[in-house]
Amino acid sequence: MSLAPAPLPFLLPRRAAGLVPVLPLVALPALLALPLTYDGAGPADVVSGLVVVYCVIRLLRERRRPLSPTAAVVLGLPVVGLALAAMGASSPEAGFTGLGRYLQVFVLVPAAVLILVRDRTDFRVLAWSFVGLALWQGAVGVHQYVTGTGASYQGEGVRAVGTFGAHDVMGMATAVSLGLVCAVGIALGRAAVWQRVTAAGCAVALLLPLALSFSRGAWIATALTCAVQLVLAGPRRALKVALAVAAAGVILTGGFGIGTAQLQERIDSIAQVGDAPDQSVVDRYTLWASAAGMWREQPLTGVGLKGFPEYRDGHATLALSSGSEIAGAGTEYRKQALLSPHNMYLLVLSEQGLIGLLTLVGGWLALLVGGARRLLRVRFRGPARGGGPEAGRGPGLDCGLVACGLLLWLLTDFVYGDIGGPTTMLIALSLGLAAWWALAGGEREDAVPRCTVAERVEGAAAR
Staple partner for 294: which of 60, 350, 359, 435, CB 3.0–4.6 Å? Predict the structure, then answer.
């Protein structure tokens, strides 16, 4: 009999030991709750590299194949366009740094999520970490609005930005939106009752900080995503939740008068982007036109990774301002240069050309189609109980709603924004969760539930 010490998982409680592999992933959203600096790579970026190394070590120790052939093709497809764009960069340094960043966000971290998340329990733990981060950032943002210590908006420090500061006004909006999508997905699924009730309460609470972010792109993406989640969850529940959200909105904006005038003006500006756009919209249109001009010069491979800032002025019109004005939330007034088109599709098209766009977006669409097909199978699985349209759902509906919701939110938000800033790690994790649902983990779990060696022995003895 061997006297060697038992492996760590057998020394921990069974539930805690089962969560060990996913904890490094949970650390990434947790690190985004800390105050951030802008003098180099953030802690989440550094830890994401360690997570990839940890994932490789686990694969070597367990001697198992890292990805299925389908997953390897879908996640590895962007490498083709990235490699070509890196070779066409203006300098080796720009090509190397750009290649590393894209691989980190769109290939390595999603692959690590696909490998380390083993079942629906792990999936829900990571989704709840999104909700926790959103609640924290939202609480900080609401405090900023109430005390007037947020980022400057129309001369007042009322824009909620959380701990991300005025440098990254979209950071809190992204974190809160993704957390809200996760909360809605969990609330509409078939998880434990306490999880669904808690998630529903969190979703309602996150509406306020999302509104106070004054981010039109986040509003549109979140509204569209949650509407799709509600429709997929069933018409009855969709109607109930819609009425509850409408009531909450009336109470917050009408009953308490929270941000009524400013929110109304911001909402009205969405419909005025074509008739009387403000300077931020004019800048965005000009940057989009500049990106399109770069693509027309190099339609197949683009101008190279990190090439947009260098070629921007050569294709921009005089309507482009010198930069966006930022102030507040602990930042002194200054101009921030506009170094991207604020549209992920046009950024890829201008720097990587058609080859890069087709390989990158093709992978996203493959995940969306695969995830939606699996979600519909789970949604309508099994005989209906009681004959109602809400019955007969298979397990994992909440995971499917979260995964497809996160991916749909990203694909919508990429029309108004691109990668950049600390919340890029949330984008990478979201793609990983979508990949897990569409490509690997969900199918395996339906066939073979996870159990420990001890449980297998007990089951055999009982039989």
Answer: 350
